[in-house]
Amino acid sequence: MAHMKRAMLGLLLVVGCSFDGPVGYDERLVDTFGQASGDQVTALTMMMDAYGAQPGWPLPAIEWIRGDKLNCDGVDAFGVARKGFDAPEGCLYGATFRALGLVQLADDGRPWSGLSFAHEMCHFVLDDQDHAGPCDPRGDVMSSANAALIAAGL
């Protein structure tokens, strides 16, 4: 099953699909290293609330990209040097697959608010795949969501 998910993710990265809505995911809240931490559940719930997700929407699974899988260097939207993962689009710090209920995050040891978590959750909930709307990394909507993570110590 995991091989099929990885193959499908690879195909989606190459094709660059945009998705219509959230779909359940059986392994929700389980990251690649085991059961999700309490902070993960808290952070996911905060972002779903911050972006106005409808009651009953499933929380996405988080796939953590860590260690030697962080195989490229880049600069994020705020000019901060970051480690990321190679994808057809370039060096990424996160990716969202709404149809799979999956968010991938590059984990270089920063707190939740220092990752691209708020940005990827914006894509997941609001479906702004081209950064033309509320998912602009420097926009007010994302800044408010990330400020909530900081205020919660995440």
Structural summary, described in words:
This protein has helices at 2-15, 38-50, 117-126, 140-151; strands at 30-31, 34-35, 61-65, 72-75, 81-87, 90-92, 94-97, 102-106. The chain is α+β, with helices and mostly antiparallel strands and 154 residues long. Strand 4 and strand 5 (81-87) form a beta hairpin. Helix 2 (38-50) packs antiparallel against helix 4 (140-151) and helix 3 packs across helix 4. The protein starts with a helix and ends with a helix.
Number of discrete helical segments: 4
Structural class: alpha+beta
What oligomeric state best describes the polypeptide chains here?
Answer: single chain
Cα separation of the termini: 32 Å
Tally of DSSP β-strands:
8
Q: Please state the overall shape, judged from the principal axes of the Cα atoms.
A: globular
Helix content: 25-40%
Summarize the helix and strand pattern as letters: HEEHEEEEEEHH
Which key phrases capture this entry?
154 residues, alpha+beta, 3-stranded mixed β-sheet, globular
